[in-house]
Amino acid sequence: MPTPYFQFKQFTVWHDQCAMKVGTDGVLLGAWAPADSACSNILDVGCGSGLVALMLAQRCPQALVTAVDIDEGAYRQSELNFRQSPWSSRLRAVHSPVRHFRPDQSGYDLIVSNPPFFTHSLKTPQPARTTARHNDTLPLTELLIFAAGALKKTGSIVLILPVTDKEKCVKLAESVELFCSRSLTVIPKPGAAPKRVLLVLGRENSPEETGELTIETEKRGVYSPQFSALVRDFYLKL
User: Fold this and answer.
1) Does an H or E element contain 154, and which?
2) Are 36 and 72 in contact (CB under 8 A)?
3) How far is residue 187's CA from residue 152's CA, in Å, rounded to a whole number?
4) CA–CA distance from 115 to each of 2, 165, 169, 190, 206 (Å)?
5) In CATH terms, is domain 5-231 a member of 3.40.50.150?
6) pLDDT tens readout for residues 43-89
């Protein structure tokens, strides 16, 4: 039976009541997104269990972090995880679709999202899991239009997507005057095809800084030095 929670160094994420469980995609997003002490206002769109919001609250000790999700189970789960964390006073969960969410008028330094990306694949019989995995409820275009209006002038939105969606996303972002300044291609193990890409999109149109990260070494279950360094502040056994 799968464990109902995932224990990190400074917090616990319960994920038994939400559709999408703690996974590598969320951990990568929370650890890699360009967040520092200068970030004061952060938004996590499609927060699920609240994992990414919790990671950013740990990394940014002064930031207020708002997490929004359309699914009631995810909202309740993230709210519980926030209450039990060391940063409960700086974390807020909101139950709302993005199109009805009212962003902070002062704008966000950082917006993060691990959006649903399945378009044509077979939907599951579980409505919550379908919502979490399929982009009917959060189309990429809608997310980028929202970000363009909600970010501060110097703010950025960071996404993790299938690597095959990078070009489409960059073009959509450019149509709302957001530009890719940084990307990270994620490879599961040496010799494997890339699976995911992380993108930083902002208003400044500067040359894209690209990078690659391999999660495991040739030995199954053994993390690469690069991945270990990225998640060391979070994973218990590192």
Assistant:
1) strand 151-162
2) no
3) 32
4) 24, 12, 12, 26, 25
5) yes
6) 999 999 999 999 999 999 999 999 999 999 999 999 999 999 999 99
